[in-house]
Amino acid sequence: MMYKVQNLIRSNIIQLRPYSSARSEFSGTASVFLDANENGHDLFGEALNRYPDPLQLVVKQRIAKLKGVPIESIFLGNGSDEAIDLLFRIFCEPGVDEAITCPPTYGMYRVQADIHGTPIRHVLLTEDFQLRPQAVLEAATPNSKLLFLCSPNNPTGNLLDPTAIEFLLRNFPGIVVVDEAYIDFAEGAKSCSQHLAEFPKLVVLQTLSKAWALAGARLGMAFASAEIIHYMNAVKYPYNVGLPTQRTVLSALETGLDGSVATIIGERKKLETELAKLDLVERIYPSDANFLLVKMRDSTLIFNYLKQNGVVVRDRSREPLCEGCLRITVGTQQENDRLLELLADFNPSVIQSSNPS
Ligand SMILES: Cc1ncc(COP(=O)(O)O)c(C=O)c1O
């Protein structure tokens, strides 16, 4: 049974009378603002005494041009994690509605489900980290409101097969969220955001935290039908993206990426080649992202050894299908060289003595 968006939204959200902020009630020109209980004195400069535009229209205009997505299909938030949170609030009645994820995948889908009291069903990826679309449909119930697909997937690094995504967009009864946080590192990959008109229940997530080097600024994007974006704006905090972030993002988008993605992809290839030469590396999974999932002979020991030497990677060895795996971010050339140097210096006899089998 396929549902329309309206039938998937919680009834209290449909009936919600959203908070109407002072700044969203006035759109003309004025020079005296006595409507928002701000401090009229610009004590610290840069007009930070005033609330920011709640709908971030100037930033959205720029992002609309960059991404080829109409403004009414864009939501901006405090990282894409905010968008994930809002989707649970809008679509999942606590304790009743369900979400589906495809592990191993980004941990926040499960955390948000737990926060919202949303039961979650896990449909494992295949051994080569691809979707099992038929199994996803079999796991779906009439209460399955959200399906999270991550492409390129974290922590595995690979793009999901677009035909499997399309199959689920056509057949999954609820909302399909395609998280494209790492899409800028996937050479030649096409964003699902170009198919919004065809799939009204599609939500695409992107972020400026990865390729755009703005993780500290906090700006995430959701692209979806105007109907879904309307509800995201109704449920969000009124001023969810601060003025410093809006300004930083505008100037960064003006400047551009300046070859940094190509540099990271080059470093990723170098890391793959160099890691493959090491005895302690069992397998390097192909990556379309800015990290590598690497199976190591004694991953926990190596994880601790790197940490003791000031290099932090992510131990993913307890994730399903990721036994013995570390997730290694592709850093700057110096960072990557330090990692390789430490791994080359690692004494393999230490691994053998801790792993007698
Ligand atoms: C797949 C995926 N989605 C979303 C996020 C969150 O990004 P943001 O910084 O925009 O909240 C991350 C961060 O690691 C991620 O890996």
State the order of secondary-structure elements, H for helix, E for strand. HHHHEHEHEHEHEEEHHHEEHEEHH
The tally of helices reads 14
User: What's the CATH topology name of the largest domain?
Assistant: Aspartate Aminotransferase, domain 2
**Strand order of the biggest β-sheet:** 1-7-6-5-4-2-3
| Uncertain residue ranges | 351-357
Radius of gyration using CA atoms only? 22 Å
Task: Please count the beta strands (DSSP E, at least 2 residues each).
Answer: 11
Structural class: alpha/beta
Mean pLDDT: 95
Bound molecules: pyridoxal-5'-phosphate
| Overall CATH class of the largest domain | Alpha Beta
Architecture of the largest domain, CATH level 2? Answer: 3-Layer(aba) Sandwich
- Note the gap between the termini: 51 Å
How much of the sequence lies in strands comes to 5-15%
Descriptive overview:
The protein has 357 residues and is α/β, with parallel strands linked by helices. The chain has two domains: 5-15 and 53-255, Aspartate Aminotransferase, domain 2 (3-Layer(aba) Sandwich); 260-354, Aspartate Aminotransferase, domain 1. Helices cover 36% and strands 14% of the residues. It contains 14 helices and eleven strands. The strands form two sheets. Strands 1-7-6-5-4-2-3 form a seven-stranded mixed β-sheet, with helices on both faces. It has a four-stranded antiparallel β-sheet with strand order 8-9-11-10, with helices on one face. α8 (162-171) links the parallel β4 (144-150) and β5. α4 (57-67) packs parallel to α10 and α5 packs across α6. It is globular. The protein binds pyridoxal-5'-phosphate. Pyridoxal-5'-phosphate (PLP) binds at residues 79-81, 106, 150, 154, 179, 181, 207, 209, 215, 220.
